[in-house]
Recover the amino acids of this structure.
């Protein structure tokens, strides 16, 4: 993988996720060229990234082996797509979550790069088979779905198009590992990928429990943050099962599978997320955290600070 070091990655779209990807790739020593179709947006992104990278260095939280100045020297912004794509081996698309906009971007990009360039999308919920439908050579297309904020939450879901070559998945996997992310491979596309399917299952049951008057909003959030979430930051649900019975997974299934099935069979239908239950849940959460910007911003800052600390702890505790 060291052969990729110093190579060029083009980031298309310089909003929240484009800027984060740029910082992650820079930390791994890659040259990053940022393009945005809104004039001035890409150069504005550079100013923002410079500020963040310098702050991270001061806080001893800068990722990678390079100094802030070294990382920033690898970064450039472009208002011209062709210029931005020159020399790139990997293109990370980060434009609005809009199918047509993304299809158009990939169509344009394909016409400006050679066959070997990997075309990667950050989409949260568009299916590869839809998104890459206007690309001629879909064997080099892939989704690399990050989690916000990618600088602290390292998971990247790699989702192939049905035609994607295994070698393309391998390069994306190596690249993500090389820059310190934690890639996982989906073997085929599925709506919601893996992360959002699990997340939506948690949201749905939490919602049903509050809606049905079983528990308050405050307390269901504590069930995650003080209960399940404590171990899920380090071990997943399958390892949890394996460790939670004296003799491991087989023992766990003997002891608990009947109970799990009984409870799972009581789960209600997909919530509507509207009407009276929604109004009640909105009221409850807004009493805890008012929806005015100042309160939301303060909680987001707290979240990011805590994630930063957790990322540091995970680094020290790894693997
Ligand atoms: P954003 O709105 O912050 O940024 C989008 C940027 O794309 C803007 O700067 C815009 O000017 C630019 N843009 C739009 N059309 C373009 C085009 N044709 N060519 C070049 N640039 C163009 O959006 P975001 O939150 O950064 O999301 C980007 C992608 O990342 C989306 O697909 C989203 O689903 C995905 N994603 C977002 C999150 C998140 O939490 N925000 C998490 C994971 C994945």
């Amino acid at each position: 993988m060291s052969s990729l070091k110093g190579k060029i990655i083009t980031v298309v779209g310089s909003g929240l996720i484009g800027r984060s990807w740029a910082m992650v790739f820079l930390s791994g020593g890659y040259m990053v060229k940022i393009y945005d179709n809104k004039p001035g947006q890409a150069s504005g992104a550079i100013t923002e990234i410079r500020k963040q990278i310098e702050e991270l260095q001061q806080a001893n939280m800068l990722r990678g082996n390079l100094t802030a100045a070294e990382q920033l020297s690898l970064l450039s912004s472009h208002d011209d797509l062709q210029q931005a794509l020159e020399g790139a081996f990997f293109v990370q698309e980060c434009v609005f979550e809009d199918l047509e906009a993304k299809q158009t971007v990939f169509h344009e990009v394909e016409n400006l790069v050679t066959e070997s360039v990997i075309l990667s999308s950050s989409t949260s919920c568009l299916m590869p088979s839809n998104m890459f439908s206007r690309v001629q050579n879909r064997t080099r297309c892939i989704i690399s779905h990050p989690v916000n904020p990618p600088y602290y939450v390292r998971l990247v879901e790699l989702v192939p198009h049905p035609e994607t070559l295994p070698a393309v998945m391998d390069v994306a996997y190596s690249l993500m590992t090389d820059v310190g992310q934690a890639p996982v491979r989906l073997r085929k596309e599925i709506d919601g990928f893996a992360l959002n399917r699990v997340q939506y299952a948690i949201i749905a049951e939490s919602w049903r429990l509050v809606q049905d008057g079983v528990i308050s909003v405050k307390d269901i959030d504590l069930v995650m943050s003080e209960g399940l979430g404590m171990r899920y930051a380090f071990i997943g649900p399958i390892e949890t099962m394996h460790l939670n019975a004296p003799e491991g997974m087989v023992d766990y299934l003997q002891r608990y599978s009947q109970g799990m099935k009984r409870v799972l069979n009581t789960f209600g239908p997909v919530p509507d997320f509207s009407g009276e239950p929604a109004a009640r849940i909105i009221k409850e959460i807004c009493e805890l955290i008012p929806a005015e910007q100042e309160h939301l911003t303060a909680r987001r800052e707290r979240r990011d600070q805590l994630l930063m600390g957790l990322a540091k702890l995970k680094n020290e505790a790894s693997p």
The two ends are 20 Å apart (CA to CA).
